[in-house]
């Protein structure tokens, strides 16, 4: 029997170098992850610290007080933001989802490639440009700022994300499910709606909520469209208040009371976005559970 | 629903119907069939008759065009981007590639079972059985009876009758595949195409499916694509051997495996290549 060489499987200099490199890059990744978390955590902490003291029932129910008087709230801005988000969904979701269905199920060749490219470019367009565009298109022709114009601007910000998310998720639906339905003699459009869209629905819902969360905080597209208002909304064809614009106005004002309210408004906005994100995660998690 | 007398509903009633008519099930005749994927000529000039109420196995090495051939029979092939087919497939004398044929109607008469079990993940076991009707929006007179009948036909009823509301994905692979067969049977087709239905299953589940094919044979015309030669030998009455897109030989299974006419067939079934 051959003598056992104890060092046969031991690490040599090359392996030790490899271990060192591995350790170095693992540490680098860990540090980078921590750096990502620092601003996020500090924003959250800071917003809570500065904003929480202003939280009260009146903040959500009262109108802003005239300049010079302290107190009042942002009730109209909170309600206005919800109205604007609702309008954005009303305009943006049908178009976005249907365009995504077209790209994934119907579109072939150049036209589809052109639409896809346009959507990607649109997603990268600065949102203030979209605000100016809607100003020229809607505000000028209606001769007034309006909630509708604001909702439309937010919808335009939302559509590219929704379209591309829908397309990607529909492509993830296994082709064999589509074939299963077609093989059963189910018409193509019913297969698309009741099998492909139905299967991808939780994922699309997640994508949609993330898109909504994104536009909830948009300020730039609203400046030239919904403008702002110090009163409750008088109608969808009138200027309307929104949290982001209100925060902008208050935060840049010289009054300490307004600045404090801007912090509370920011906290409120962060909370809305957080809730939407959590809801998106919950929808995704539940659908994963159902598949098992 | 109160009393539904068990009237015979054509070839799918729970009792095997009497057979006064020797040929009530559709006949398939394939004439000069070609199929392409883009520039690739996958099926070349295939002509054959598929025996009625028998199991016909289609064997051949991977890439020989056997699956493509099968998918031409219910016009599923043409749905692949870039794919097309030429020639004719006659179902009871009607060319399924004729101008007035609606592929949706065709596919209700020619059902298909796929390689990987593919129950609809968003549906319960019950809804999966009824999927062909639910998705098409057609009304089913007595859905519960149809679910039980279809599941009994695939010998799955006793295993799932207490959990019909659970997801179809909760079943084992073999059960899922039987569910997929039940789903096809519920549409009441005359022809059933199976594309390597057991290749994702273990030997026990495979044996159950093969047993099932033997039971279904008396009522349906069955075409089974398989790359498992033993399976073809065990389950089929006729066997077609495809090689590089050509139909080399179609004959009784016993003849194909013991005394084939063609040299290539003999080499393949004896394991000399492929």
Helix fraction bin of chain A? over 70%
Number of helices of chain A: 11
User: Quick check: average pLDDT of chain B?
Assistant: 87
Query: Which superfamily, in CATH terms, is the homologous superfamily of the domain at 24-118 and 191-269 in chain B?
Result: P-loop containing nucleotide triphosphate hydrolases
Q: How far is the first residue's CA from the last residue's CA of chain B?
A: 56 Å
- Neighbour order of strands in the largest sheet of chain B: 6-7-8-3-9-10
Query: Tally of extended strands of chain B?
Result: 10
Characterization of this structure:
The complex is a heterodimer of chains A (292) and B (274). Chain A is mainly alpha-helical and 292 residues long. Chain A has one domain: MetI-like (MetI-like fold, Orthogonal Bundle). Chain A contains eleven helices and no strands. In chain A, helix 3 packs antiparallel against helix 8, helix 3 packs across helix 10 and helix 10 packs antiparallel against helix 11. Chain A is flat, with a radius of gyration of 26 Å. The model of chain A has no long low-confidence stretch (mean pLDDT 88). The N terminus of chain B is likely disordered. Chain B has eleven helices and ten strands. In chain B, strand 4 and strand 5 form a beta hairpin. In chain B, helix 5 packs across helix 7 and helix 7 packs parallel to helix 8. Classes of the chains: A mainly alpha (292), B alpha/beta (274).
């Amino acid at each position: 029997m051959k003598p056992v060489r104890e060092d046969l499987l031991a690490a040599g200099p090359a392996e030790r170098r490899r271990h060192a490199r591995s350790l170095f890059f693992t540490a680098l990744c860990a540090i980078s992850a921590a750096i990502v978390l620092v601003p996020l955590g500090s924003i959250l902490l800071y917003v809570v610290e500065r904003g929480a003291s202003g939280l009260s029932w009146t903040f959500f129910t009262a109108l802003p007080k005239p300049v010079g008087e302290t107190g009042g709230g942002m009730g109209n801005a909170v309600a206005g933001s919800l109205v604007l988000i609702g309008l954005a969904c009303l305009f943006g979701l049908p178009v976005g989802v249907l365009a995504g269905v077209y790209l994934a199920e119907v579109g072939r060749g150049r036209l589809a490639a052109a639409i896809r490219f346009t959507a990607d470019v649109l997603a990268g367009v600065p949102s203030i440009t979209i605000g100016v565009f809607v100003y020229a298109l809607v505000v000028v022709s209606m001769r007034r700022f309006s909630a509708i114009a604001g909702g439309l601007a937010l919808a335009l910000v939302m559509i590219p994300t929704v379209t591309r998310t829908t397309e990607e998720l529909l492509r993830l639906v296994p082709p064999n499910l589509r074939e299963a339905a077609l093989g059963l003699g189910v018409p193509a459009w019913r297969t698309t709606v009741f099998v492909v869209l139905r299967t991808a629905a939780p994922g699309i819902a997640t994508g949609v909520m993330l898109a909504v969360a994104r536009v909830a905080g948009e300020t730039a597209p609203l400046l030239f469209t919904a403008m702002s208002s110090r009163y409750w909304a008088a109608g969808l064809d009138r200027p309307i208040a929104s949290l982001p614009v209100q925060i902008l106005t208050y935060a840049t004002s010289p009054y300490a009371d307004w600045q404090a309210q801007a912090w509370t408004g920011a906290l409120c906005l962060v909370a809305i976005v957080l809730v939407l994100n959590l809801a998106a995660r919950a929808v995704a998690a539940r659908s994963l559970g159902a598949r098992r | 629903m109160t009393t539904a007398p068990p009237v015979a509903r054509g070839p799918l009633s729970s009792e095997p119907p009497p057979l006064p008519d020797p040929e009530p099930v559709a006949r398939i005749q394939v004439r000069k069939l070609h199929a392409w994927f883009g520039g690739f000529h996958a099926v070349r000039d295939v002509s054959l008759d598929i025996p009625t109420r028998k199991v016909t196995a289609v064997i051949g090495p991977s890439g020989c065009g056997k699956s493509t051939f099968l998918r031409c029979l219910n016009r599923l092939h043409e749905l692949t981007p870039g794919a097309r087919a030429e020639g004719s497939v006659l179902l009871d004398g009607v060319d399924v590639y004729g101008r007035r044929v609606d592929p949706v109607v065709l596919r209700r008469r020619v059902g298909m079972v796929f390689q990987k079990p593919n129950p609809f993940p968003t549906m319960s076991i019950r809804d999966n059985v009824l999927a062909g009707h639910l998705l098409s929006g057609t009304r089913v007179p007595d859905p519960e009876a149809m679910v039980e009948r279809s599941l009994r036909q695939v010998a799955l009823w006793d295993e799932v009758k207490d959990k019909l509301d659970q997801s179809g994905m909760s079943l084992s692979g073999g059960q899922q595949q039987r569910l997929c067969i039940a789903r096809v049977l519920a549409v009441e087709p005359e022809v059933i195409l199976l594309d390597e239905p057991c290749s994702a299953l273990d030997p026990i589940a495979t044996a159950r499916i093969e047993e099932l094919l033997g039971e279904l044979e008396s009522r349906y015309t069955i075409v089974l694509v398989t790359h498992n030669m033993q399976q073809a030998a065990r389950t089929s009455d006729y066997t077609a051997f495809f090689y590089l897109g050509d139909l080399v030989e179609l004959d009784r299974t016993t003849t194909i495996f013991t005394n084939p006419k063609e040299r290539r067939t003999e080499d393949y079934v004896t394991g000399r290549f492929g």
